[in-house]
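Let us practice reading a record.
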Amino acid sequence: MTSERRKEMARHWHERGTDNATISRLLGLSEAEVKAIIDNPPQPKPASHKQYGPEFIEPPLFN
């Protein structure tokens, strides 16, 4: 399994025009891994539940 940092670096170098053989040599990955990283862009993380404040704020007991 390749770390997220290496995947970012591979995508960045690919965007700048570096060939897959050079990327694989620099990152220590196979060319097939580099091709797979480039062909599968990162998926956006799904939004979990909506962020709201508390539904009810209890008033202070003593003023």
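A brief commentary: Residues 4-39 form one domain.
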